[in-house]
Amino acid sequence: MTTSSQSIGFLLLDQFTLISLASAVEPLRMANQLAGEELYRWHTLSLDGAAVQASDGVPVTPDASAQDGLALDAVIVCGGVGIHNVVTRGHVVWLRNQARLSKRMGGVCTGSWALAQAGLLDGFECSVHWEFLAAMQEAFARVTVSASVFTLDRNRFTSSGGTAPMDMMLHLIGRDHGHELSAAISEMFVYERIRDERDQQRVPLKHMLGTQQPKLQEIVALMEANLEEPIDLDDLSKYVDVSRRQLERMFQKYLHCSPSRYYLKLRLIRARQLLKQTPISIVELAVVCGFVSTPHFSKCYREYFGVPPSEERAGLEAERIEVARPAVRPARASRPSNLLDEARGEATFASVKVLRARA
Fold it and tell me: What residues form the membrane-spanning segments (predicted)?
């Protein structure tokens, strides 16, 4: 585990999404409050130190210019609307310089586009907001673009938009200072479930297919509406007036898998949602998601997600118990930052014990 305070720079690009910035910063603030010490410091940056306008029109005055030479352990690029047009040569040069200094590099929303444009994601896997999935795949052939809500790949960490940066930061905090702290932060934010890298963004099919494949969209809609009692593929073909062979070809061409495989994926994703969000038993889950038996369901689940449903459920129960029993210790005597001064009056201040690795 990390033992010293980390400094993180948030590079704000024009038209960045404010919700993604807040989702990334707030877990750091709460980590400091719950630990009772400065585990993280953060700074907002723009290339020249001038105010940057967020996508909702709110102007944000950064803490410093990117050229001020702040000592940073990590850099996170905050992207948003119109990312194609806002990344400049100056951004690319600065990001490359930071990477050469062995800084950890990250991006939120469309921030991974800027990293890719700087050549910093070549050979890496990354996440980006679903609206830019296809564009990134087309523009950067050496980058593996994932539909996951976030991706951690060596010293690169990227997330999609909205609240996905919170999931990513909670995982990073857990990796640095232990799962108990990240779970307690989630509890403070009334964040019901911390998503992981296996969770996928729900990409609207219309975005993937455009308006040219109404039959395929209709078939997928029928699949989504009939997960408990799956419709036979021959019947699906008849409903939309295409042959079974045409159906197979459409799925292979546009969704890169067979219709049966796609249908199975929909049912397994639904099963995972129910497993994580409800107390429904695994036996009932198998029935509700259209599986002929519990062993068959468990086998398919393990093959797709890499872990049996019983282990996934057991892990969730362990997390809930851990959150319910936070360890308490007094705050350290070292002088806190202003934010920590303000947090001292909170009942939760220094409510989570941060274990230190022995030297």
Answer: none
